[in-house]
Design a protein that fits this description.
The protein folds into two domains: 142 residues, 3-Layer(aba) Sandwich (D-Maltodextrin-Binding Protein, domain 2); 97 residues, Periplasmic binding protein-like II (D-Maltodextrin-Binding Protein, domain 2). The N terminus is likely disordered. Helix 3 crosses helix 9 and helix 8 packs parallel to helix 10. Strands 8, 9, 10, 11, 12 and 13 form a six-stranded mixed β-sheet that branches. Strand 2 and strand 3 form a beta hairpin. It starts with a helix and ends with a helix. The protein is built from ten helices and 14 strands. The chain is an alpha/beta fold.
């Protein structure tokens, strides 16, 4: 019996030792992941850059153009991002990805902020903090020039295959609010426009500024003369990770947005980007 007790005591001691090591390891991991308690703005200034995530297939907000023989991402959101970085005193780094992957990348700390014509919906607010609104617009419907259908009310949309960008407010509108079943969700508006040209969708619902660019870029398309969809106000804001560490960062972003709006600069960015997108499409 004495031997059994000694063995039992030895085993219990080993188990406790392993438990202490395990807890110590987890504590160290937690400590490392918290970046020593620094705020987000301190981390950004320390590394000397702020990383913006976006989906560069949404002219005039963000799109790719050719400059000096190289691809360059330009647009309204890029100019806003540049000003945010400038006011922080750091460089701007751009990460281009699919729209529906942006919030995941933000929460994984792969990017510092999202500026991609993103609307601060209630669902997104559960995991993401948003800046003040920097631009507001409505939606529009794009169809082929030969479209002879009738869309006078939201119910009329049920008769058609509706194309929307995956993860967008337009997708939430048609699938959630309207409960449509014939919905085609694709990663990019470029793919949606090609599907529309090839009659794989009957119509596409996008931001009204984007719609104007699409009909210039893709032959045989037009913006439908209807108020359906226009009742949805699409407000855009900068998204950052939801954490107490980001309060000062969000305050800085809001100061930049206010400065730009007070100077009517965002409207100028929109005008310049729309003109540039139009020139590129006509080349």
């Amino acid at each position: 019996m004495k031997i059994t007790k000694k063995v039992l005591g030895l085993v219990m001691g080993m188990i406790m030792a392993v438990g202490v090591v395990g807890c110590s390891s987890k504590t160290n991991e937690s400590s490392n992941s918290s970046s020593s308690g620094k705020t987000k703005i301190e981390e950004i200034k320390e590394k000397g850059k702020v990383i913006v995530g976006l989906s560069a297939e949404y002219p005039p907000y963000e799109f790719v153009t050719m400059k000096d023989g190289k691809d360059e991402i330009v647009g309204v959101d890029i100019e806003i991002a540049k000003e945010i970085a400038k006011d922080l005193g750091v460089e701007l780094e751009i990460t281009n990805m699919d729209f529906d992957g942006l919030i995941g990348a933000l929460n994984a700390d792969k990017i510092d902020m999202i500026i991609s014509a993103m609307s601060p919906t209630e669902e997104r607010k559960e995991t993401t903090d948003f800046s003040d609104i920097y631009y507001a617009s409505t939606n529009a419907i794009v169809v082929k020039e030969g479209f002879d259908g009738k869309i006078e009310t939201k119910d009329d949309l049920k008769n058609y295959t509706v194309g929307v960008q995956r993860g967008s407010i337009q997708e939430q509108y048609v699938s959630g609010e309207l409960g449509l079943t014939k919905v085609k969700s694709l990663v990019s508006v470029t793919d949606l426009s090609l599907d529309l040209q090839n009659s794989n969708a009957d119509l596409v619902i996008v931001n009204d500024n984007v719609a104007k660019n699409l009909v210039t870029q893709f032959k045989g398309l037009k913006v439908l003369d209807t108020t359906v969809g226009a009742e949805v106000q699409e407000e855009t804001a900068v998204g950052i990770k939801k954490t107490d560490k980001n309060k000062e960062f969000l305050d800085s972003i809001n100061k930049t947005i206010k400065k730009l709006k007070d100077a009517d600069q965002i409207a100028k960015y929109l005008e310049e980007a729309t003109e540039l997108a139009g020139k590129q499409q006509n080349q």
